[in-house]
Design a protein that fits this description.
Serine Threonine Protein Phosphatase 5, Tetratricopeptide repeat, mainly alpha, 14 helices
Length: about 260
Amino acid sequence: MRKLSFLAFIILLHFFGCGEARLNQKKKHFLHKGNLSYKEKMYRDAIRYYREAIGVDSSFAQAYNNLGIVYFRTGKIKEAIIAYDKCIDIDRSFADAYFNRSNANFELGNYHKSLIDLNLIITEYADKEAIHFSKGLSFLGMHNYDSADIEFSVALALDSSNIESYLNLASVKFYQKEYKASKELIDKSLSLDSNAVDAYNLLGLMSLTTNELDQALQYFNKGLSLELNNAFILNNRGFLYLERNDMIKALADINESMIINAENP
């Protein structure tokens, strides 16, 4: 009888192991389908497949992280944060989820929360340049220009080809009224990409500070020729038209900028 019980126990273990393997394969299948749908920009299908994976295994951290990425891409930022929260609750060492949650909080203007997540992973995260760049953005959002200056400078030291780092550091220098340094950084960005739209916006703003309205208009027009629906440049060109007392053009640009981005100041 003991031998039979032992044999039955072995059979039960075998069946349990096979069942677990099938579930593991099933959840990975749904994850893979979700990833393929995401790459094809079939976001509704991606969400469905990631949810299917979570339905198979409610502790599948990767599926929650990927679900958060889809929510973020589709503008559902709060839902993305909930998904990242769940991923981190399951696996506290899931660095990508901290980074992704930081980006989501940044989009909501929660700059302090964004920095907390970045600081939690800064030592082990592989892409150090991305961490310092993101910290720079959060400090810039907080108008902490000195700290933003440091972070963007570190990011550039790690990757001197990142145009966005040059332009954001140029913005910091502009706000600090270090116009010469700002101009040098803008010129560097344009040497890397002559179609860097934000560079022309910054050049236009610099021209406005010296009341060179014609020059500023040329820069804004150049930027808009590259990106017609850039709300920030439209808003700035609208301000320029106000300075010229051209109310019709000013209102047209400002109204258009608000249609494109209602949060544009």
